[in-house]
Amino acid sequence: MAGKKGHRGWGYIRKLPSGRLQASYVGPDLVRHTAPTTYTHRIDAEGWLSNERRKIEMDAWEPPALARERAKARIITLGDYADQWVEERTLKPRTRSGYKDLLRLHIKPVLGGLAVRNVTPAAVRSWYSGLGTKYPRRNSHAYGLLHAILATAVADGVITANPCSIPKAMNPPRKRDPVVPTVAEVAELADVIRPERFRAMILIMAWCGTRWGEVTELRRFDITDDCEVVKVRRAVTRRDGEYRVDSTKSGNSRSVVVPPHIRQDVQHHLDTHVDAGPDALLFPSARGSHLDDQTFRREYYAAAIKSIGKPAMTIHDLRHFAGTQAARVGNLVETMGRLGHSTVRASLIYQQVVSGRDAEVAAALSQLAMDRND
To answer: Is omega for the bond preceding 64 within 30 degrees of 0, making it cis?
Structure first.
């Protein structure tokens, strides 16, 4: 505006209370942009404005803040940017620790010293190939973390495109198929597990679909008086030798109706093996603390699955059993709610396993063939 203090032919220079000069202008995007620093002498402020105007005239202009980010990208390494990325996020302690381990062991040794802008698709492919094929799940987690970090770099304007573009790298094939027991085998496993105080835990994992960290954090007040409902509200994780109680994997609580045929077993467990206090753990270790999964597998579970002829069945396979059984009688939304899935992908797998549509399609094809012969 003509005559306004600080106004000039192009741009604007004003004196701050500190006595220093601040330069700014309205760019082609109709947004006011300010110099990255203030100046002691007017000639320096004039020089910055002249350089910015020259960029506009030469069609080489970009917002100064974005230009600064690009300049920073020439210096900041992927390792430093990744560390900052982790620190700025709200993460569960175990997740944060896991991310730091992936960075320290599998990402930084190869890519950490590169400037962010020099992390090319070729560099990512070479790094990913160097991870080998022995641990596909670990590789997918490392790749997924790198993809997320560089997606933020794109959003920040540090790079123009995400160099992580390997098809299906975040969805590797299963290394093993789950060993899903039958209803009779679950009952047999509950009968043979020793000591007997773990019988109800096997039944709750199999019929209510609780994860290991969820079932080992269940307390007396999580079971309703009639043993009709188990409230899954927390989970415990073990990291760096410490147990931490946090929210469930999905971050949401859920109430799971206990199938009537195992309620008597749950009630017997409460009456026989659980301390009277409302916050007493349902399935503590022999020392009264949280039960360690490795100890449970080694000292109790391994012998039990061997005795029923299922030596390869993992603890998590009981959750697969829960998923397939729920899918047999419930729809997709009901299965998701019962298992605590936050996305439909996992529950869809169970729905597809038990849908029976393949047999129906085959029967229909045979009927078509017979009709045509008639």
So the answer is: no
Summarised one tens digit per residue, pLDDT across range 302-311 is 999 999 999 9
The residue annotated as part of the active site, out of 254, 319, 320, 338, is: 319
Verify that 297 and 220 share a domain, yes or no: yes
For residue 194, give Cα distances in angstroms to 20, 90, 187, 242.
Answer: 78, 41, 14, 26
Indicate if 300 belongs to the active site. Answer: no
User: Which long-range contacts does 357-366 make (Cβ < 8 Å, 24+ apart)?
Assistant: none
Query: Catalytic residue among 33, 211, 254, 320, which?
Result: 211
Do 262 and 299 belong to one domain? yes
Between 78-87 and 136-155, two packed helices, what is the crossing angle to 10 degrees? Answer: 90
6 falls within a domain: no
**Considering the entire predicted model, what is its pTM?**
0.63
User: pLDDT per residue over 309-324, tens digit each?
Assistant: 999 999 999 998 988 8
* 341 belongs to the catalytic site: yes
pLDDT at 12: 93
Q: Of the ranges 25-34, 86-95, 325-334, which one carries the lowest mean pLDDT score?
A: 325-334
Given 42, 261, 316, 357, which residue is catalytic?
A: 316
Structural domain containing residue 214: 183-354
Same domain, 206 and 334: yes
Structurally, the chain folds into a number of domains equal to 3
Catalytic annotation on 319? yes
Per annotation, catalytic residue among 25, 81, 99, 350? 350
If asked whether residues 317 and 222 sit together in one domain, one would say yes
List the beta strands (DSSP E) in 195-326: 229-232, 235-239, 242-246, 254-257
Q: 194 and 300, same structural domain?
A: yes
Residue 175 lies in a domain: no
195-212 pLDDT tens trace: 999 999 999 999 999 999
Is residue 316 annotated as a catalytic residue, yes or no?
A: yes
Shared-domain flag, residues 308 and 198: yes
Number of neighbouring beta carbons within 10 Å of residue 94: 18
The catalytically annotated residue of 117, 290, 320, 341 is 341
Identify the CATH number of the domain in which residue 83 sits.
1.10.150
The domain that holds 272 is classified in CATH as 1.10.443.10
